[in-house]
Amino acid sequence: MKKHLFAASVTTALAVTSASVAAESSVTLYGVIDTGLGYAKVSGDYRDPKTGAVNRLDNSHVGMTNGTTAGSRWGLRGKEDLGGGLYATFKLESGFNSANGTPGQNNRLFGRDAVAGLTSADLGKLEFGRQFNIGTQYMLSLFGANFGNGFTQWNTGAGLGLSGAAFGRYDNMVLYETPSMGGLTAAISYSSNIDDKRDGETGFATADNTRAVTAGLRYLNGPLAAFLSYDQLNGSNKLSQPSERNATPRSYLIGASYDFEVVKLLLAYGRTTDGWFGGSSLPAGAAIGKFSGIPTNAFVDGFKSNSYLAGISAPVGAAGSMFASWQRADANNSRLTSDDATTNTFSLGYTYSLSKRTAIYGLASYTNNYAFLRDAKYTDVSVGLRHAF
Description:
A hairpin with a 2-residue loop joins strand 3 and strand 4. Mean pLDDT is 82; it is low at 1-22, 146-151 and 279-296. Helix content is 11%, strand content 51%. The chain starts with a helix and ends with a strand. The protein is globular. It has one domain (33-388): Porin (Beta Barrel). A 16-stranded antiparallel β-barrel has the order 1-3-4-5-6-7-8-9-10-11-12-13-14-15-16-17. The protein contains five helices and 17 strands. By secondary structure, the chain is mainly beta. It has helices spanning 2-24, 134-140, 146-149, 151-155, 242-245, and strands spanning 25-47, 54-66, 73-83, 86-95, 113-120, 124-132, 169-177, 184-191, 211-221, 224-234, 250-259, 264-275, 299-316, 320-330, 343-353, 358-368, 377-388.
């Protein structure tokens, strides 16, 4: 009898110890696969920025799509209880192309996130590594969970990304965010080199690299969400052109959303001066053909742009959701382009959840004066499947 009682006591102690260890530390494997079929077409005339010649655009593509509503990725995230309300955290997230299995984010292993840090409800969080800048994180918090937490509304067609707003990830970033104070948080970060892959603009000396300072305020309380953010790039000493060396790109973003339950409304505004930010690029740039007037991460002294976003989303039945949005991008001058026409993008999307993890969707967008080119048009239609695990 005593042997049985002893064995039962040991078994119980081991179970309690295992539960305690599991509660103190956890690691989660997760992922999303978003793939489908799409059609894209660019048409119209544009003036070549190098030669001044007028060229005809007439390119289209039909094929598989990847990451239309949520970037395809897999990842690991973990948390360890250090006591006193302090936790050690990490996140490793790898993007990939679901159409062919190749790595994303310029062939990085963990190109979406590679972050380790400390977090506390009383002290805030301190993180180190590659992740979204503060403006991107705060902007995405305005959207709902459908359509990839806002990536679709933000990037379908063109919009804020086309105007050079600071949307993207930074390498080598140190970020601090305060604890929530009645729904209000503040954050600041610094990157000593925003992109280690830019070999022509990187080096041992700090000044050889493109550096970034970003800061923001965010308010989340019930149905109301609002934020503002600021980004500044300091260029590498290796920039060759005077117009690049004299530029200090800055981006300002502000936005708010309100959830009325039956419908959610969102408004946002962005302004960029002196250049193009990391993570921004001309959408479907390959379809432009000969056009090469808008580089990525450009430093152009005197360039200015304004952008606007108005969106609406609403549940449709028990398992459906839709959104509609209008985005406007105004280059203000032709420092980056051969033209300065104002771009407007109109988008519509619908998603239907087959289960908690699987959904199907359809999206369509139309852009006039695409890439600030007068009379150029961009049409994008896609249907797809999104599965989370």
